[in-house]
Every structure is written in structure tokens, then in C-alpha cells.
Fold this sequence. Notes:
Layout: E1 6-13, E2 17-24, E3 31-38, H1 41-54, E4 57-64
Parallel strand pairs: 1-4
Antiparallel strand pairs: 1-2, 2-3
Amino acid sequence: MSGYGDAFIGLDTSKAKNAVAIAEDGRGGEVRYLGEFENTAPATRKLVSRLAEKYDHLHFCYAQRGKPPR
Length: 70
């Protein structure tokens, strides 16, 4: 941990790829789109590891893309 506080991670999930955005804590916190990554366990672990190195606490939320439920 390097002391950057909290980060709020938004994931838009689908079968093939996930889109990722991050918002840093506080009124002046930066909000940015990180891009898309493969929807695989290794890619997700790599993303979380990189974020965990920079921020003290990670908060995740997600939305699933695709067909709406019936």
C-alpha cells in the first residue's frame, strides 16, 4: 500500500471483455476510464493486484452487459 486512500472501481462486464473505470476518493479525486480487459481470472487478478499496489482500499461495483433478464 502506498497511501493513496480509497478507490472506487466500476466494472461493466460481458462474456468476452470488461470495461473498467476508477474514481479516487474525495471531492478532488480523479475519475478516469482505464479501458477494457479480457474477462478471464488471470486478467482480473492482474488488474486488482495493480490497483491494490496503489490504493489502501478498493471498492468494487459492477453492471452486466448483454440481454436484460426476462
